[in-house]
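Predict structure. Chain length: 271.
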Amino acid sequence: MDAWPGIVRLGRNTAGRDIAVGDLHGMRPLLEKELERIDFDPEVDRLICVGDLVDRGPDSMGSLRLLEEPWFHSVLGNHDFAAAINCMGPAGPVSLDGYMQMRLLPEPWLQKLDGEEKRRLVQLVSGMPVVMEIETKTGAVGIVHAEVPPAFLRWGELVQWIEERCTHDDGLDWVKPLIWGRSFVSLRGARRASVNDASARLPDIGHVIHGHTISIAKGFKPWRLGNRYYIDTGAYLLRKRHQNLLRLLRWPLGGSPRLALVDVQTADQPL
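Prediction complete.
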């Protein structure tokens, strides 16, 4: 992970659509069906994922290899990062404390990879930015996996901070709040800020799209705080192996998991 792209900027797509998709978690077969449903055209459309391409679903490596497609882009998720540092071990790009805090127990798919596949995984993950900025006809839209931490009151402050971190060779411990944080919400989707709370709004960007935190209380639908939109809607829970967990999470609130796709420019309604 030598050349780490802290932030990637995508220019305006004047030929087609920019579609954001929630945490993929190895659910590439489901994604392909959804792209067919919305008539996604890889010749002109772009697909931007909010991170967590791997773990839990049936095809983690296939989902990660979407990064090889010119029409697919993704920010870094905590599961992507954990997979990479698991492959690299404690000698990777984070301190020993960071390694212990950000690694996850490797799933069977990761344990089965041979040396060449692990090298390819690290190579692909090392090209994933922590933050993405996309130009649209109504202004810039930001993408961050977990959150913009509350210490940053403006989008520009976050961007400057990331650019400074990438200038110095201090390792990658600093990515943790951006790929793990839940300052504004709890794991069960309970809000610690209201929709109109000024602290949940970044005034110098149109809006920001996140994944990471599923709102069970909203029935597995995308939801927002201020101008921050959360679009992880639990696609991996559709797998049979997770049905007992799903029954527990849904009771008594109802709703069904899905794979959310939204227009980057609007982000408030699933396609």
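Summary: The chain is about 25% helix and 15% strand.
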